[in-house]
Amino acid sequence: MKIKCSQCKKIFQRNPNRIRVKNFCSKKCFENYTTKKFICVVCKKEFSIPNCHIGKYLPKYCSKKCWDKIRCKNTIIKKCVCGKEFKTSTKRELDNRGKFCSSQCYWKSIKPYKYSSKKESLKANRDRSRFGRNREEVLNLYNFKCSNCGSKNDLVIHHIDGTGYKSLGTYKGVNNQLSNLQVLCRTCHTDHHNKEDIV
To answer: Phi and psi (nearest 5°) for 136?
Structure first.
């Protein structure tokens, strides 16, 4: 059966069982129809990308190597906390970024806590904002010890006037002043609130 090519409009023969919505006489016509050609900004080389991979912004670079040449045009060699030397751009330096060679070194550098994972660090950030950003100050004030039994494990911050316990998770009307915060271990904290419930 004679049909017309969707790309070059050439008439060619094809089996009726193989006819589709779009038909091409050769592989070259198929590639020209499904891809777009661009010229690399760096090496001026012509490259093609499938239409389905082209998003909002048109591609400018043919490879990662060419992209790195533009991105790392003005680079600085810096020393990480772990002692390893790495390259960073001047733009990242001005923005106070690019201080660490990897994300692992960043999470290790956070003080006064040594977090094993990103999840633990995010939980600590939530706790800091929950206690009016006074959580670290209270822990330093009590030397990271429970004020009741002196334990250093599983520490929590306790509101002396009970506003944190009575807010029922909303944290509205909670007194987060340093004079109202106390460091307790989890067992002492639960015992304290169990006594209040009995009374």
So the answer is: -65, -40
